[in-house]
Design brief:
Elements: H1 2-12, E1 16-18, E2 25-32, E3 35-43, H2 52-66, E4 74-82, H3 86-92, E5 102-110, E6 115-117, H4 129-137, E7 142-145, H5 155-173, H6 180-186, H7 191-195, H8 202-205, H9 213-230, H10 236-261, H11 271-288, H12 297-313, H13 319-338, E8 343-346
Parallel strand pairs: 3-4, 4-5
Antiparallel strand pairs: 1-2, 2-3, 5-6, 7-8
């Protein structure tokens, strides 16, 4: 049944289920882009006659129940399944009050024609639901990546943090992490040594070296925020591939930038790899159609834009490593997930 297929879609997308007192009315919620979206899935039989007064009372009840929630707007999308859309078209074609905090939208699915009907006064696009519903109705199946959250300790993330901290402590003990000789000794990136000296291993080691406690703290903090979440959704081997791949892309971009601009500064840090994690979360969220432990592709794109903006205005920040790591994270995520067999039919 179409009603069941649509319910399965919202469950698969990890929308939160809200209890109702009817088997023919299902309610779901999701929080996106600072707004709360409520989805009311209503199945009406061929004998049903819409009581507009009761319908308006229900709308007021829903509004009173949810408008206290901390969000910019509450957007209610009523999806009505009925055998003839004309029977309810005029009654539900009430223009939504876009200036209000609570916006009520009505769509109809004509089950006899297998057609999504969006009345003329209604908003015709809400978080891509219309495309997904049309795909369900038309039985268009797209393979969507199935990512299952694993309740486990983020061992790799914690291990990487410990490595970063341990190396930094060793540097401090042997002369300080601001000391150029110490940085070079521990494997920081320095273009002349890489190109002329053939020390290409610095492209790897530079990702585990930090200059000062502040640099270390912010990178470890970011690594924990992003890494601990991503590690719950992909395998540890995949995580390792993405992290190290992004790290090498970051230092590779950094080296290229130094050569192109003829500026041979010493550079180090895990920032490129961390930007790779940001790129990876964006791809995982997009391909699976759900957030990665609360981090959606939309939120992560904002993180990336803000991070790059801060990098531009901050002195002594290797922005090329950030951009390179971000690109590397995206590419290596596609690479490690491409052969994944854990996929399920869904809608895009």
């Amino acid at each position: 049944m179409l009603f069941d297929k649509i319910n399965e879609y919202f469950i698969e997308r990890e929308f939160e289920r809200i209890p109702t007192d009817s088997e023919t009315v299902k309610m779901y919620a999701t929080y996106q882009k600072s707004s709360l979206y409520l989805i009311n899935l209503i199945e009406l039989d061929h004998n049903y006659i819409l009581d507009i007064q009761k319908y308006m009372q229900y709308k007021i009840l829903t509004k009173n129940q949810f408008t206290h929630i901390n969000s910019d707007k509450v957007i209610l999308v009523n999806i009505i399944l009925i055998d003839d859309a004309k029977r309810v078209y005029d009654e539900v074609n009430i223009p939504p009050q876009l200036e209000e905090d609570f916006i009520d939208i009505n769509w109809i699915i004509d089950t006899s024609k297998n057609e999504l009907v969006i009345p003329s006064n209604q908003i015709n696009s809400v978080i891509r639901l219309e495309k997904d519903l049309e795909a369900i109705i038309g039985a268009d199946v797209v393979v969507r990546l199935k990512l299952t959250k694993k309740d486990r300790l983020p061992i790799l993330t914690l291990l990487l943090m410990l490595i970063n901290i341990g190396i930094w402590l060793a540097m401090e003990a042997l002369g300080g992490s601001y000391n150029s000789e110490v940085l070079i000794q521990f494997g920081a990136l320095y273009a002349p040594l890489v190109i002329e000296g053939g020390e290409y291993w610095r492209l790897f080691t530079a990702n585990f070296i930090h200059i000062g406690a502040t640099h270390l703290f912010f990178n470890c903090f970011s690594l924990f925020i992003f890494g601990s979440r991503l590690e719950k959704y992909i395998s540890r081997l995949q995580f390792t591939g993405v992290y190290l791949g992004a790290a090498l892309f970051g230092t590779g971009f950094s080296l290229t930038s130094h050569l192109f601009m003829d500026t041979y500064a010493i550079s180090a840090g895990a920032s490129g790899a961390i930007y790779g994690l940001i790129g990876s979360i964006i791809i995982c969220s997009k391909l699976s159609g759900k957030s990665i432990d609360g981090l959606s592709d939309y939120i992560m794109i904002i993180f990336f834009i803000l991070g790059i903006a801060i990098s531009i205005v901050s002195p002594n920040v290797d922005i090329s490593a950030h951009i390179g790591g971000f690109i590397g994270g995206i590419l290596f995520t596609f690479a490690v997930l491409r052969k994944s067999k854990d996929k399920t039919p869904a809608l895009e």
